[in-house]
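pinned: reference chain
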Amino acid sequence: MSPAVQRFHVGDRLSEIAVHRGTVYLAGQVPDDASLDIGGQTAQVLAHVDRLLAEAGSDRAHILMAQIFLADLADFDGMNAVWDDWVSPGDAPPRATVQARLARPGWRIEVVVTAAQVA
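pinned: its structure tokens
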């Protein structure tokens, strides 16, 4: 029998977190305030990632993979300035960054993270 999948913050369309066999999967995280510049939106999104990982028994040092979606690749350097200060030194995860049309106007970034559970 396979271990159960734990889901957190389950809605009709998605769960914010799923955990299975010690791996934490986060839904795409987006900013709360779409009026902020890319630095502000990135900081908000990474704070969401921190909070959700902690809730699932993980942290940024245990990220296995990050996928970053930017509405405009012109924001790449601004996003990286915040990312570089946030990522755990020596624990930078594999990462992909692509330009994508995001679901809401004003959103400049969405981040999807997979991490190992540590607690």
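why pinned: The chain has a mean pLDDT of 96. The helical segments are 38-55, 76-86.
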